[in-house]
Fold this sequence. Notes:
By secondary structure, the chain is of the alpha+beta class. Helices cover about 30% and strands about 30% of the residues.
Amino acid sequence: MTYPDESNGGSGRPKEIALYNPALLEIKSKYYNDIRRYSIEKDQIKSLEDFLDIVINFHRIPEKTVLISYTDPIEKDELPITNNNNLQKAISSSKSMLRVQLFKESDADLMYQKLSKQHEKKISTLQISAPKEFRQVSSVIDADSLPTWKRRVKLMKHASDKPLGFYIRDGSSVSVSEEGIQKKPGIFISRLLPGGLADSTGLLSVGDEVLEVNNISLEGKTLDQVTEMMIANAQNLIITVKPTTQPKPIQRLNRPYVSVQLRIKRGADQASGRQKRDDEDVAHKRSGSTPASSKHAGQY
């Protein structure tokens, strides 16, 4: 845009006015029906928390915890801003203006529903759900190094306030050793909350014995101590369990081997019997007597 240079008496010599300042960030923010447009210095934005404080103050939002998303200038997609990396990407991708929307934390479903609908328009055959539902909730680790009767499960809450979704109790387990049957105390899963984190993994069951918490053995520990350990590691909990349902051992069939042995033994006995009778016949012939069993010859 150009304006007459008034210093030259309005002779029409143009004077350029800078409309873009790289040190400033133009923002258009929307909080429901409240729309604001303003500029802030980029140096003021050190983190996502700083950016949210600035935007919240402009809208005079009483809640200090809000959710925020921005409009991608190229794809026109609405994308969430959840960390500093997302924020820097939003700022760097914005050309002339950064367009953001704010939502109350209680309206998180409304925000994610809006984000998922735009993907459904692009790919009608693919069902896209809320991004928070894509988060991995569990994994089996160290499967190659553990015996088959153990299972190590990693539960991931992703900074969620939801509980892990299972209860534990103390009890006793029975083991068989060289000294015989032994009974020792243990910690067991007593209940799974339907739809909870532990239940949704499909890797834990009621009755599973908990052997370790984050690679620390629970031998000799009380129920209260184990509870404190799980609470302290709730955000990244790794538990090693002895599943209540153990894999069936491979059964080897020894009957063919036994039958072969029997056949060999019987064959050897029969051959020994025939040899004995032949020896007796030779002995009787030499002595000229008749064996007592000769009258039964051929009757078997």
